[in-house]
Write a structure and sequence with these properties.
- The complex is a heterodimer of chains A (191) and B (176).
- Chain A is 88% helix and 0% strand.
- Chain A is mainly α and 191 residues long.
- Chain A is elongated and about 75 Å long.
- Classes of the chains: A mainly alpha (191), B mainly alpha (176).
- At the A-B interface, helix 1, helix 2, helix 3, helix 6 and helix 7 of A face helix 2, helix 3, helix 6, helix 7 and helix 8 of B.
């Protein structure tokens, strides 16, 4: 058996274990909540009605969000992201980094190895930082949930500000890293 | 005539209060039909992924919904607003920003939680700071990020993200 296959099946077992753990924790929380409500019977009315309202708000939108995640992961595979990010630069590169980071392609720890691969392919540090940050905080399906709970005004303002500052941060960090690297090279030259 | 008018206004009110939900579901529905027409097996696979993701996030969702119920049911609003509300000022923003950095919650779940805090008396600034640091700053994923990206990029990114999250929150508080 090839080592790749072994690590893949190991990954699956790990995922299953963490899934079972999550459901056990959920069960424990439900039992604890039920006991707490039985003790504080006067609070059970408000607690249950609040929980019910939030549950309804979520359940109306969750299937749609999940389907979007599914559609994206099938129609836009990760390899495509790497392919498009490696080549571009300038303002186009910034736009690409944001757009590709926004796609729901998985959790942040997938983005790190991808970012390293991109860096090796010659992508700029600023674009990599923008890519990781966009990946972390601007996910298309999640934004639908944000609109649902916090309103369109709040969501769009926060997104616009976040994108602005993410771009500023990417450029700033690149400048700092370039500056310190140059200093290091100069010191090494002297030695 | 009068009765139809009554039902019409009632229907309009219903549509207005559920506008986001209706629009989002409609878009996804149309998209799904496109996908089915274009490629059936790919659509099937995407629905499988959707179902898998749903069951993976379900425990977290239930837990947070119960938590929200207890938060609003037990904590009186004046306590929430004292800690993270308008009267808490800058300190309140700092508290939620740190909380968002340390906690490891999926963003999907942070929005209902943020909405409940807002309803419970938290300020817009605090809530914005919470959501932004929650997604941008990751104390829990720090070791992993250092291992993959190196110490310098990781520390710079997280420190800048924290500072910018607070600036974003302040601007949002001024505008909204």
């Amino acid at each position: 058996m090839k080592p790749v296959e072994i690590s893949k099946s190991n990954e699956k077992i790990k995922q299953k274990k963490s899934l079972i753990r999550d459901y056990i924790i959920m069960g424990a929380v439900i039992v604890a909540a039920a006991v707490a409500l039985l003790i504080f019977t006067d609070k059970s009315g408000p607690v249950l009605s609040v929980s019910k309202n939030y549950f309804l708000d979520l359940i109306m939108i969750l299937p749609a969000v999940m389907i979007i995640i599914g559609l994206f992961s099938v129609w836009i595979p990760k390899e495509m992201v790497v392919k498009y990010m490696g080549k571009t630069s300038g303002i186009k590169g910034i736009f690409f980094s944001i757009a590709l980071g926004m796609l729901p392609t998985g959790p942040l720890y997938i983005a790190f190895p991808m970012a390293i691969a991109l860096l090796k392919k010659g992508a700029k540090i600023s674009n990599i930082i923008i890519f990781i940050s966009a990946w972390a905080c601007i996910k298309l399906p999640q934004e639908l949930v944000e609109i649902q709970f916090l309103g369109i005004e709040f969501t769009f303002l926060r997104l616009a500000l976040t994108i602005t500052f993410v771009v500023i941060m990417g450029i700033l960090i690149e400048k700092i890293i370039d500056f310190t690297d140059k200093k290091k090279i100069k010191v090494e030259e002297r030695v | 005539m009068f009765i139809t008018y009554y039902y019409l206004t009632k229907m309009l009110a219903f549509i207005k209060s559920y506008l986001t939900v209706i629009v989002i579901n409609l878009i996804v529905f149309i998209w799904l039909i496109f996908s089915v027409v274009k490629n059936k097996s790919k659509t099937k696979e995407s629905l499988k992924i959707a179902l898998k993701t749903f069951f993976k996030t379900l425990p977290m969702i239930i837990i947070i919904i119960i938590f929200i119920g207890f938060l609003l049911g037990f904590l009186p609003p004046d306590i929430i607003s004292k800690v993270v509300g308008e009267q808490a000022g800058f300190l309140g923003i700092l508290v939620t920003a740190v909380l968002g950095s340390v906690l490891f919650l999926p963003a999907l779940i942070s929005f209902p939680l943020a909405a409940s805090l807002l309803k419970g008396g938290a300020s817009i600034m605090s809530v914005a700071a919470f959501i932004t640091t929650l997604t941008m700053v990751g104390i829990v994923t720090l070791p992993l990020e250092i291992k993959e990206m190196g110490k310098k990029i990781t520390i710079l990114r997280n420190v800048f993200s924290f500072v910018f999250a607070i600036i974003i929150a302040l601007i949002m508080g001024v505008i909204l």
